[in-house]
Amino acid sequence: MAETLHPRYSPVTAPKPFSAYSPMVEIEAGRRSFHISGQVGVRLDGSLPDTGEEQVHQAWMNVLAVLEGAGLGPQHLVKVVGYITAPGLTAAFRSSRDRLLAGAEPASTLIGVPFLAHPDWQVEIEAVAAV
């Protein structure tokens, strides 16, 4: 389980999360926050994986790379919003998130959309981190 850096809330008066995320995460006063632009499933060399599942995995790897570039890790994430272009990518999104975030449970939303900024992209992930 990842170290919890920010208070997380899951009140018994609200429905339980449907997978590994927190209903609410607090960023305490005086903390620095980082807003990560949408990361898509494109590799560092600009190539695009063949399948939507591989794009999901790559998009999560890109989020982690951006965090690492600022000296941060998954435990610093407080909010994640994912966009997928096919309902069949939901399981891949959740399993990649759960595996790669190593127990971190940021607040999370997953939205199905008809398309992204490039017709071949099937996933985009934006996030907020704080220290």
| CATH fold label | 60s Ribosomal Protein L30, Chain: A
The largest sheet is:
4 strands, mixed
List the secondary-structure elements in sequence, H or E. Answer: EEEHEHEE
The neighbouring-strand order within the major sheet is 3-6-4-5
Tell me how many strands there are: 6
Uncertain stretches? none
In helices, the fraction of residues equals 10-25%
CATH homolog superfamily: RutC-like
Name the shape in a single word. globular
Nearest-integer average pLDDT? 90
First and last CA, distance: 18 Å
Number of helices, where a helix is a run of at least 4 consecutive DSSP H or I residues: 2
Class inferred from helices and paired strands: alpha+beta
Integer tally of domains = 1
Report strand %: 25-35%
CATH classification class? Alpha Beta
CATH second-level architecture: 2-Layer Sandwich
Radius of gyration: 15 Å
Walkthrough of the structure:
The chain has 131 residues and is α+β, with helices and mostly antiparallel strands. It has helices spanning 52-69, 90-100; strands at 8-9, 24-25, 33-40, 77-84, 107-112, 123-130. It contains 2 helices and 6 strands. The strands form 2 sheets. Strands 3-6-4-5 form a 4-stranded mixed sheet. A two-stranded antiparallel ribbon has the order 1-2. The chain starts with 7 loop residues before the first strand and ends with a strand. It has one domain (21-130): RutC-like (60s Ribosomal Protein L30, Chain: A). The mean pLDDT is 90. The longest helix is centred in the middle third of the chain and has 18 residues, at 52-69.
